[in-house]
Design goal:
globular; 6-stranded mixed β-sheet; 30% strand; alpha/beta; 14 strands
Length: 346
Amino acid sequence: AVVSTQSKQWYQRRVHGETDFITNILMLHIISISLLSSLVASQPTQCCYSKMVGEVNYTLVDNMDTSEWGCKDNCVYATKDGRKVCFKSGELAVTCQDSSSGGWPQEPQVESNYTARGEMVDLDTNMKGYLVGSGQKVVIWSTDIFGITGENSKRRRTKEWADFLAEEGDYTVLVPDWFRGNNMPVGSFDPTWVTQVTNWTRIESDWKNVVLPYLETKMTGPLSIGLIGTCWGSYPVVLLSRFNNIKCGISMHPSHDKLIPTVGQNETEVLSQVVAPQLFMTEGGVADSVKAGGIADEILGDKITFEEFNDMAHGWTVGGDLSDPDVARDVEKAKKLALEFFAKYL
């Protein structure tokens, strides 16, 4: 039940020199919730990234002082229609829907000592990318929140995957730094940072004005482009798949379903614009919207394929422990499925 409503001006700075803007009189609704005593004891103090309260899903968008509204913590969430809320104690049941309790779905971390075969290149004066391969068909890889530059990127096998696709599929693989060096702070999860980098206007501009022109100077003949992304990277994969020059898109342990409402977009509207065939490879415990029978299935129909890896945790393809035979098995399966999907559509 809604127990009080307050008005507040919310300020947000657009990254990379875009204009500051103010969303005026955005209503902060305070919703009462109840936590069973066992949940209270087991839940960490950090915020769940995605949680169900009653029958409504909420996505974490900020961490701020909510004491003036009497909320139980400083976690601020958004609904699918863009309302921002915090929670008091009450009678509604709450379920944390992250892959593990608390925060963004738990990201496994590996120390990658892999020697990359490609090279870091300048896509423009402020945007880098990892480039490998020389095939006439192009694969664009969009990273998870660990990125492709900086210390965080060393905890992922992204370059190893890119090299694999380039060699086994005879593709040119480019991993753009959509974050433009604005990497996630090391050792912490910052929802404000996630909101900043999940900026479709900027990503679309970089696609049209930086990435595509760069490819056009490198390639001879018409471009045939496939997309692949992990976690955060499913957001650019799904949104870029509206363009006719995209042949297909692959999302592994996707997070676009959480990111889209976080930045005030509508998942139904976004999916309705997708024209390229899609492959979703999901871990156990994901939301229904990214599984067979969910909203993506309803909207995309025969344009989407689902592969469920229910024994896997979030991030397993690029961050899972390969000494675990189950993880090694499913990483190899994911690689095989990706190659087959690209071979079919590229």
